[in-house]
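Follow-up to my post from last week.
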Amino acid sequence: MHAHLVRTALLLLAICSYILVHPQATPRAEGATPEEKGLQIARDTRERARGFDNFTAEQSMVLRNKHGQESRRQLRVKVLETDGGGNKSLFVFDRPRDVRGTALLVHTHKKKNDDQWLYLPALKRVKRISSSNQSGSFMGSEFAYEDMGTQEVEKFRYRYLRDEPCAKLTCTVVERYPTNKRSGYTRQIVWQDKGELRVWKVQYYDRKNAHLKTLTLAKYKLYLDKYWQAREMNMVNHLTGKSTVLSWNNYKFRTKLKASEFTRTGLKRVR
Amino acid sequence: MPLRTAFHRAAIAAVSIWATLLLAGASYGAESIEHEFSGSLDVDGRWYPQTGAHPEQRAHASGFAAEPKLHLKGEGDWSFTVAPFFRYDGADSRRTHADLREAYLLVFGEAGDGEWELRLGVDRVFWGVTESQHLVDIINQTDLVEHPNKESKLGQPMAHLTWSAEWGILEFFALTYHRARTYPGSHGRLRSSIIIDDEHVSYESAAKEWRVDLAARYSHSVGPFDFGLSVFDGTSRDPFIAPHIDERGALSLRQHYDKIRQFSLDAQLTVESWLLKLEALHREGARNLLGMKEDYAAFVMGGEYTFNSIFGSAADLGLLAEWNYDERRERSNSEFQNDLFYAVRLALNDTQSTEVIAGVLADADHTTRTLSIELKRRLSDQWSMKLEAIVLMDVEEEDIIYDTRRDSFVALNVTYNF
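User reply:
Got it. Predicted complex:
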């Protein structure tokens, strides 16, 4: 169950990095190779996600199997940007009720492994847990851990494929290849609109290069005139027919979060 | 103080505090106080396939438990939490008990580059890293009638001050009242041949249960390494069980609590899929199994390795091994005097968070093996279940747990969480 919680939480981190994008366009290198062009888009996306300082939000997840049966997850999230380029995040689980009050503290580092502590309210125990738990589904959902770990630029190699219309916008289509050997994917294809660099769609290809899953993002909203957040994300597994819809609610940016909430002492105080 | 009286007092205190807070909240502008009500209701059944080794012991026990929790949070940095506990057991009247698990005021604020935190009232505190036993964990008394794994703890009245910053976490505890351990009654299983008196408890300290025990702890996390150094000076949580013969010549067993001093270390190294763990202590002033005072050292060391996504599935498989050692060996009053623990943890990572843990605790000094298997599964958003079996095998007469040799059991818990 711990692994589930961790994975769920890491998903949230990933989502932050997916969708915190800045509306100003930066000039793209002309005449660059497809590899350089793809890398540049990833770097621009990362640049635009910076400077939010902190935010809080609520998240709900609906898991559906191929027969349409549903189960739900609910969490609260707090994220604090730190000076070193990493983040500190706190996740508190509200549903299902058997994990109510369970909380996860993550200190994300740019280069070294993340530090993670799990708080188990029944025993009032804080457990340091491994962050190398890279693969597999979490909480029975269609998101895998690696879909969620922060989408650091360095975690992929890139290749720009083409521009193409997506809804009323024009999207760049970039293929990226995970550098982690433990990855369950050979490649991913990412659709991002050219103006705002919002991610609209990701296709995942498994180790046999079969089209395994598709993620679509919707209900983007602009916060602080600067950060685009998708409030709905839908992951569909084409092999099993299962799907997971993630919804984000009640985003609040630059709240009065204190660094002391993101410590092991603060972890024991969460509700 | 007799246990039962203590429980009644605790229960009455909980109800009064609760009522007062609700009234206070209502009269002082309830809008400024957020409240949250949560908790669980649990129905349990235990079946013992073998008849008891001692007369009167029942083959089956079932009942229920309730643990509601009220949390009030005011404007500014304070909160109040109350969590009473009640269990009814159909077989053992001693296991039917109430406790105040938590009833504390929490305040905190900034202190220089770090912060301070103060908890006043009844609370639970956990120290440690290992799984087979919680060796260094000492703040709270064990609520042994709940489960032989000693993981359930009685609420402990205390003042708990924390000061933390970049350099780590420093904690001070003043523990103002001693709770005696709970033991099964005559109809209960997993007990000594003579039941342990719960009304006559003796103390080395002249202040008896009112002696103020002190503890301090420094803990820190440096890269992949987490550790805690603790000291405890006060009345032991582990009783010495002394035979007592009354005026009429009837034999009983009584709990006696000595003053001890304990220094301990708990540490964990987290590297990739490995968790390497150590708990060690040095204790002064405690009596050994023979009733003599003997200073001693004990430790638990071991680790856990997790294989993720085994056989291309979503499941994770964890392997655990720990060595428990107490240098008093046959003079130790702990069953972990020289025991190896091996376990397998399988987490299916499905929608129901199905998890199976199977383990064996093998006594290296005796033939005793304790097998345990636990299956946990969520049934719905609010319902969950746990199926458990504990099998005691080849318990030698010399083993400290010999009296429980026929107490293997199967248990089923169904829990409603809210």
